[in-house]
Amino acid sequence: DAEPDLAGRRVVISAGGTREAIDPVRFLGNHSSGRQGYALARTAAARGADVTLVAANVSLPDPAGVRLVRVGSAVELAEAMEAERGGADALVMTAAVADFRPVTSAASKIKKSGAAPAPIELVENPDILAGLVESRKKERSGQTIVGFAAETDDVIDNGRAKLTRKGCDLLVVNEVGAGKAFGTDDNKATVLGADGTVVDIPTGPKEDLADRVWDLVVARLPDRAS
Ligand code: PMT
User: Fold this and answer.
1) Which residues fall in a coiled-coil region (predicted)?
2) What is the pLDDT of residue 137?
């Protein structure tokens, strides 16, 4: 059995991919299956944590012993994370969040008219991870905030820039595309720390990667007042 090194700790994890409605039947989405986030939830629960899993459009079996909150869009995910963040020892953003959403969602299914298709006008979604970092600044908190970065090119350089931009403590950088990370059983990553640390996690089951991420979170946990 796993060491209960997260006993008495509360963690909030987002998983899956947001869907941004175009009309009642169509959306802008991405290929996240939720597997990496669910693996983080299962492993945290096995290590004794009180786990809240915020799932965006995931169709995997509910993990045992985990509180599940379901959301659809990026705005709903932002609201759920903001509602859950208080008192959490760690927040982990594994969800693939749409950076943009359609300005309006049509009330009825958009029909072909024979004319040229109307363009879909987009507006930027909130950056949820950066928002969680901002919220933490307003309080005295030992909370650890972990982001993930899905990159297709210049993986480490882009990861470093993202770590600085988002301001989280740890950024788990994984390569995506061409059969990598999205929907797979295995994953590999490099974890960049705001303090300059770099930890490579070799290819293996998403559970193993999740356990290595929790090891890094546990190492950052402030000692509990006795
Ligand atoms: O679900 P699986 O099929 O198992 O696949 C796992 C995964 C590839 C989705 C996962 O490992 C992963 O990389 N998740 C992050 C996906 C992502 O949105 O990456 P990003 O580089 O676009 O965003 C960086 C970070 O900012 C992420 O923590 C993301 O949750 C967050 N973000 C992004 C945009 C936004 N508007 N708000 C955010 O909070």
Assistant:
1) none
2) 95
